[in-house]
Amino acid sequence: MFDFIWNITLVCPWDCEFCCTDATHVKKGNKNIIISERGLSNSVFVRGEAEMIFRKRYPGIPHNIYDLALIERQLAGEEPSLQEKLAILNNLPKSNIKIDFAGGDPLSCYENFLVIQEASRRLGKEYISITSTGHSVNRIGIGRLAETIGEFEFTYDEPREDKNCRPIGYNASNLVIAKKFAELGVKTKAQIPIHIGNKDVNTIERLYEDLNIANIDEILLMRTFPVGRGESFLRKNKIDKITLLNVIDGYTQLSNAGKTKIRLQCALKHLYGGNSKNPCDILNTSFGINYQGKLLLSAWANNGNGQPLSDDFILGDLKIEGFDFISNKLKFKNIRQRLDENKGHCKIFSYQYGGKNFESLFTKTDPLYSMN
After folding, report:
1. N or C: which terminus of the chain carries fewer CB neighbours within 10 A?
2. What is the rounded CA–CA span in Å between residue 46 and residue 53?
3. How would you classify residue 8: left for phi > 0, otherwise alpha for psi between -120 and 50, otherwise beta?
4. Would you place residue 272 in the very low, low, confident or very high pLDDT band (cuts 50, 70, 90)?
């Protein structure tokens, strides 16, 4: 079973301080719709004809500023058309796969829901998940989405009233929506990247209590990756091995007495050693698809401008190439054969701290495991 994490768009209603995909923030300013992109440092105005184009494409469907921002980005060649997204879907294996639609916010734009619906129709809803925010779910409707997806994933990494790393309302709205999915019997997963804003004992207890009361099924504890808008944040606010172990232990103890269970992201599993199998899931079970349709070694392989970290991480272009064709390329086979050379080390961290070249994918330079 392959798991494809498809960041189907960069369009997002939030401007988080760190974002591993460097999502583009969209807002209304006076009479203009403004897209902030490339580390939020570059502003683009949505052209006037975007509204007319949307109405022509989707008669009778109400639009929002995110729909129009997507059209602007499509006209600029930044994101694929609906037809190209369906081509990407066609080029994936026809069975034994799961797709997690993420972003940006995958539900911010109506067009992307059409792709999610089609994927659900083909594969079955139990093989479809979305990682979304509380902002955009209501537009589609909780009930309609519950008929389309098997799992709702969301970030919940700071107590609702706090604002250290996230915009006010981000975490709170995510939890409200997740609780509604849980009430409808949809599996729910809270993603908690461990960072400076949530590493203390009090915050751990508050986060777990909120999620447990909301009947969230699972917490995925994660590392904050040095990618996207997260690289400078992480380098300024490093989390050491002892802190990570203490955080994990805190959640584990709470989980033993609660309903919400804990799972570790693969990049954390080597902390405990003793694994005969390489915990890294790159190429074995997991792939990334970026907003341009590129098949990536990892969904985390994004730089500060929303592009792939480098060509080293690009396996092929799913808009025009089938997965079977890509998986038979020499590069794909070569990487797969070398995965265990730095067993346990996260390939993203190894690359970022090991020289940022192809060979550094296989070096033991993940700082969490290479330093005593």
Report:
1. C
2. 12
3. alpha
4. confident
| CA 171 to each of CA 62, 66, 213, 301: distance values in angstroms, whole numbers, following the listed order | 27, 20, 15, 24
Question: What local confidence, expressed as pLDDT, does residue 264 receive?
Answer: 96
- Are the C-beta atoms of 248 and 264 separated by less than 8 Å? yes
Q: Which amino acid is at 250?
A: G
**Checking DSSP bridges between strand 2-7 and strand 286-289, what pairing results, if any?**
parallel
Would you say residue 172 has pLDDT above 60?
A: yes
DSSP state of 127: G
pLDDT in tens, 113-123: 999 999 999 99
Between CA 15 and CA 46 the distance in angstroms is 18
- Centroid of chain to Cα 79: 17
Q: Is 67 exposed, middle or buried (0-12, 13-18, 19+ CB in 10 A)?
A: buried
Q: Provide the pLDDT for residue 275.
A: 67
Give dist(CA 121, CA 134) in Å, integer. Answer: 24
What are the structure tokens assigned to 47, written together? 């052209």
Determine phi and psi for 154, rounding to 5 degrees: -155, 155
How large is the average pLDDT for residues 267-291? 88
pTM of the model: 0.95
Which residues touch 168 (CB under 8 Å, ≥6 apart)? none
Any idea which residue has 């997991």 for tokens? 286
Kindly give the residue spans of alpha helices, DSSP state H, lying in 36-109.
50-57, 65-75, 82-90
Q: Buried b / exposed e across 194-229, counting CB within 10 Å, b at 16+?
A: bbbbbbeeebbebbbebbbebebbbbbbbbbbbbbb
Within its chain, how far is the Cα of 68 from the centroid? Answer: 22
User: What whole-number distance in Å separates Cα of residue 258 and Cα of residue 87?
Assistant: 44
Tokens, residue 224: 């904050």
Task: Please measure the distance between the N-terminal and C-terminal CA atoms of the chain and give it in whole angstroms.
Answer: 36
H or E segment and range at residue 114: helix 110-123
Percent of the chain's residues with pLDDT above 70: 97
Instruction: List for the chain the helix, strand, coil content (%; round to 5).
Output: 40, 20, 40
